[in-house]
What we know:
The structure holds two protein chains of two kinds. Chain A is of the alpha/beta class. Chain A has helices at about 5, 20-35, 105-120, 130-135, 155-160, 185-190, 210-225, 240-250, 270-275, 280-295, 310-320, 330-335, 345-350, 375, 380-405, 425-430; strands at about 40, 55, 75-80, 90, 95, 125, 140-145, 160-165, 175-180, 200, 230-235, 255-260, 265-270, 300-305, 325, 420.
Amino acid sequence: MSDKKNSGIPRTVPVQSATFSQTVNAEIRRAAATGIYDIRGGGAKRKVPHFDDLLFLGASISRYPLEGYREKCETSVTLGTRFAKNPIELDIPITIAGMSFGSLSGPAKEALGRGATMAGTSTTTGDGGMTQEERGHSKKLVYQYLPSRYGMNPDDLRKADAIEVVVGQGAKPGGGGMLLGQKISDRVAQMRNLPKGIDQRSACRHPDWTGPDDLEIKILELREITGWRVPIYIKVGGARPYFDTTLAVKAGADVVVLDGMQGGTAATQDVFIEHVGQPILACIREAVRALQDLDMHRKVQLIVSGGVRTGADVAKCMALGADAVSIGTAALIALGDNDPRWEDEYQKLGTTAGAYDDWHEGKDPAGITTQDAELMKRLDPIEGGRRLSNYLKVMTLEAQTIARACGKSHLHNLEPEDLCALTLEAAAMAKVPLAGTDWWPGKSGSSF
Amino acid sequence: MEKLDLQTLGLRALNEKLQSQTASTNQTQYEIVNPRGSHAIAVGIDSPIDVTVRGSTGYYCAGMNQQANVHVDGSAGPGVAENMMSGTVTIEGDASQYAGATGHGGTLIIKGNAASRCGISMKGIDIIVHGNIGHMSAFMAQSGNLVVCGDAGDALGDSIYEARLFVRGSVKSLGADCIEKEMRQEHLDLLKDLLERGGCDAKPEEFKRYGSARQLYNFKIDNAY
């Protein structure tokens, strides 16, 4: 047949496979070419049930609202009331998560400290120890006690306002970390007691304790060294929130920090970030249930993290039973991470603003996740601190707006019955009714 | 010498007493009696005092020690002298697992044997063991010196960085990236000093040196296990 004769026949439209999508195929080709898995920063990028799948009901005839701009809605929180002589008093229940000096620049750590202090909250060290920039500009500083013990020393331990024993993090429960050689400057190398330019591994488990019984003794040691003055947090990734929370309480934690899979990391394998751990939405109610079963809810405080972005997210965490939240990725974005103003440079790196996640390479155009002296200058720590403070203020105002609409005079008075879910999955995870029903999957007494 | 009875004083008061000493203290000699295997004895000291524990200790004895000389007249439980910064800790008997873990400085002397993971993640401490050490010792050891007058267990120095390991007896197996290295004069001199400090009568020439092959320092897929 001639081409002329066939020209009028409708053709099958090319169909991309949902299983072998262009993204998947590109990764197969990249893996085949390099023989190495993809390493990146950040948290899970896949879509998972999240706070967007929940709605507040607001006030109605049976619920009396508070006036939006006049009536008080408290936001303060006290962390570490169980054993510590000096619990941490915060003006707002939004804390800054642990991020290391090494993965972040010194000015970025300073900006986090400045912003947190202006907003009346705490910031947290990370792997690599405590820097003067951070301690000096953070009124409340939580010192992470990590498996690597890089930069760990009793003098800094005693300067901390709280100690956070890191067992795991949401991006990689069960995994250690890696700070690649490109980011090991003289200062980072000196702080970590390792040669400059080599990859620095952060171990996946602690070197001198295994299991909850040992952890209890480790916490005793830390309390003895710090004179029982400061709270001790235990941070876990979103793996087995009921049991991990139970064991953390048993080990003597003052505060449990629970990090879902959307929580970021400086660098790890993409396959780890996307396939290990649970979304934070699936973790909060289980952790709260563990605390309630032990009669420890509100006695051992619960901080949750992993994808908290707005005041609505904060309010939803409070309503599900958390005492406070923690933000990491959102704080970096407030400082200027992934800002479209650097789009030309993101393009040169083969990416685009909003998608840049090769933080481990140290080439961050925004000058935040780098140790490059020139790039670092792009972040003014004073301006960065102001931006972070503004953002924290907005989040707090948003959370208060919602709480008042629900008739609550304190964010902590929000409760699960203020919520409904838009999807079955979110209803099951948050244990709140599917919108328009009084039912959720797994509800006690349900026939399902 | 001031005698402190742990069972009478309690752990908090005992540690508070030791931690409150300063460089100018006149009372520099302390004896702790009735330790009965308690945990976290003599932790967080930061002054040049001498502390003798009459008996065996539990976990983390002398943890994060600075300046002090702590002498355990018995055996020590897990994590003795963990994260020590300076000073000297001496164990007359055996030490359990993780002895000297992550230690940044100072000297740990174990006159008996040390169990597994001795010197794990060490960061500058010198550890001298008169007897044998267990498996996975000096795992991810960053810097400092580990001297073993007896034998070493499996996977010695796995993923080691720049720490130096000296073993007089046999090594059951070496861990990833750990190799035997040439013993040069500088190492013999260093080892002589360490043996003297540790009160060992062994000769430096009887030891072999182990350290990093430096093949894992930058990630290469061919090195993945």
